[in-house]
Amino acid sequence: MMAHDASFFRPLSGSEVPRFAGRSTFMRLPQIEDPAEVDIALIGLPWDSGSTNRVGQRHGPREIRNNSTMMRLVHQASRIAPYDLCRIADLGDAPVNPIDILDTLEQTGEFYRKVHRAGAVPLTAGGDHLGTLPILRGIARDEPMALVQFDSHSDTNDTYFGDNPYTHGTPFRRAIEEGILDPKRVIQVGIRGSLYDSSDLDWALAQGIRIIEIEEYFDLGPKKVNAEIARVVGKTPTYVTFDVDALDPAYAPGTGTPEVGGFTTREAQQMIRGLRGLNLVGADVMEVSPPFDTSGLTALTGATLMFELLCVLADAIASRR
Predict the structure, then answer these.
(1) For the chain, how many structural domains are there in total?
(2) Cα 3 from Cα 83, distance rounded (Å)
């Protein structure tokens, strides 16, 4: 573990100010305006206009912020101390327009382009899964990126309700079509649930996406899944997206499209920790819908997964220096 740099931002300590007091920010960090001041920018994306059924994900970032007061300074298992490795702060929320999808895609994409140009790596709390598309557009590189997607749905459908190309079921098809993602470097873990048609996954498979459906996941287990992730993405700059409906709804009931039969929060933590060593360039936790979980469990799960991702991101950035 590196010695703490006094110039780095530090979370407000729960032993000095009660967790229920003070400003609500991600991990109790300062909120800043300039992404050039940080290595990792924690960002909220309060938007759910891409949802086709259950909504409420626009409230996810605020509740994840509230529940992130439970996160401390050092990862218990890996001993990664992210705030000793990187400059990290809450950058506030990306701009959204709740009644105009195209305007939000443009505004949000430009926001993330500014973050990327400033040299900061984004870690986002959403928000429905369409929100990952403008993030990917904003951090796009000269060469297509790799993607690790924990999800119960492939999100590579073409259109909904006629010819609408932009919903939470289409973002990764659009990102591949736009050349942002290399489909042969995309791996999806936990895919399950009933289909609209037996051909629903054909397009994704034809592009070369590696799909680990939930039955294969349980056959392999987290360690072998992580080995397969490493094989697929290699050294390519890699974005990680975690849809909380990848989890069994017993662990995350507050989400837009729950699917029974998923993996546990413990298994999710194992797999995120297993991403250590990859060339990570950003991440998000999506589809937390607090109105469907008055217990607050899903928001706490979202905050915990966000901290897990923060640790492996900080480690990846430090290793590139």
Answers:
(1) 1
(2) 10
